[in-house]
TrEMBL record:
GO molecular function list: RNA binding; tRNA pseudouridine(13) synthase activity
Enzyme class: isomerase
Protein name: tRNA pseudouridine synthase D
Chain ranges of the TRUD domain: 153-310
Keyword entries, A-Z: Isomerase, tRNA processing
Family to which the UniProt record says this protein belongs: Belongs to the pseudouridine synthase TruD family.
InterPro entries with a match to the protein in the record: PsdUridine_synth_cat_dom_sf, PsdUridine_synth_TruD, PsdUridine_synth_TruD_CS, PsdUridine_synth_TruD_insert, TruD_catalytic, TruD_insert_sf, TruD_pseudoU_synthase
HAMAP family given in the database record: TruD
Active-site feature positions: D78 (nucleophile)
EC number assigned by the record: 5.4.99.27
């Protein structure tokens, strides 16, 4: 997989560190559902620390003595962080859950709803991330470029987390698609297919970003034949390039996650897209927004700690680390953001 390229950054003269720890990396899920306050399902707003979503689900399942599949959730949250999210269980467990205790999980509130939470039932996530070793001048530059990215758009790459440590899952995915590796487990097979699609998407997006940079532009260059997603959720390829609608964010250009039964680009846009397309892949294809727009950016600088807290909201399926990469103008890996103790931080 090639390097992720970006349109805007603070430049090579500025650097900062961030760590995926419970105090430095906080994620709050933004639900897309307005819970009714009545119904046969209990909605739990939960906070977890240093646990994956699956770990948390397993703990609740064991406590209630139910299969994990009986617990609904909207999305997966980082392990090395403090995160909040919504889960659903049958309302008959309400009394039992009043006595629930776990040192890494806290039930913040409960309500009722008419149906279980399903995967994807979220609008996005709110992030609060501490950037370390930032002086007050650089803090201003970071905030300025963050707001410029929010205005012009952030390339919507899949982050390094998608591909596993040392990108080992990419190799597995390629071997499976080429018939060199047999995978029996259906969940693992579907996961590896999504990895295969994601690599193509990221490489396509890199080419499109580089095309923009070659034209000395900082706003993603649109091409004849691009496929757009409207704010109503519809895909289309307008006959006339929709510059006005694009600039007003009513239409967002998309990239291909290759597979069957999916709308493909045309004309100039297709010339680049077809290099990252596997038309023989039998799994369902999708289109993913090429750009996203971070919202509600807030910056708080703590001079004594040379710390800048950056808070922002992103739509579902996008990565906070991609936003940080764009600001820094560099790629990160799991190794770069590994939790460090206070002494290790001080030596950096």
């Amino acid at each position: 997989m090639r390097k992720r390229e970006y349109l805007q950054s603070v430049g090579e003269d500025i650097s900062f560190k961030f760590y995926q720890t419970p105090t430095d990396f906080v994620v709050d899920e933004i639900s897309s559902t307005e819970f009714k306050g009545k119904g046969n399902y209990l909605i739990l707003h939960v906070k977890k620390v240093e646990l994956t979503t699956w770990d948390m689900i397993a703990i609740f399942a064991e406590y209630m003595a139910v299969p994990a599949q009986k617990i609904g959730y909207a999305g997966l949250k980082d392990k090395h962080a403090t995160t909040t999210q919504y889960i659903s269980v049958d309302a008959s467990y309400e009394t039992l859950l009043k006595k629930f205790y776990h040192k890494q999980i806290k039930i913040l509130s409960t309500t009722r709803h008419s149906h279980s939470i399903r995967m994807g039932d979220l609008a996005g996530n709110r992030f609060s991330i501490n950037l370390h070793f930032v002086d007050n001048i650089d803090a201003g530059k970071i905030e300025k470029v963050a707001r410029r990215i929010a205005k012009d758009g952030l390339p919507n790459y899949f982050g390094y987390q998608r591909f596993g440590r040392d990108a080992d899952s990419i190799k597995q995915a390629q071997e499976m698609i080429q018939g060199e590796l047999f995978i029996e487990d259906s969940k693992l097979k579907n996961f590896l297919i999504s990895i295969y699609q994601s690599v193509f998407f990221n490489d396509w997006l890199r080419d499109r970003v580089n095309l923009t940079l070659e034209n000395n532009e900082t706003k993603f260059k649109i091409l004849e034949g691009d496929v757009y997603l409207s704010d109503a959720g519809n895909l289309s390829t307008p006959k006339i390039m929709p510059t006005k609608e694009y600039e007003s964010k009513k239409l967002v250009p998309t990239g291909l996650l290759c597979g069957r039964d999916i709308f493909r680009a045309r004309s100039d846009a297709r010339e680049i897209e077809k290099k990252y397309d596997d038309e023989f892949l039998q799994e369902k294809g999708y289109r993913r927004e090429a750009l996203i727009y971070p919202k509600d950016i807030e910056c708080t600088y703590v001079k004594k700690q040379t710390l800048l807290n950056l808070s922002f909201s992103l739509p579902k399926g996008s990565y906070a680390t991609v936003f940080l990469e764009s600001i820094a103008g560099k790629n990160y890996s799991a190794k770069d953001v590994k939790a460090k103790d206070a002494k290790a931080k001080a030596k950096k």
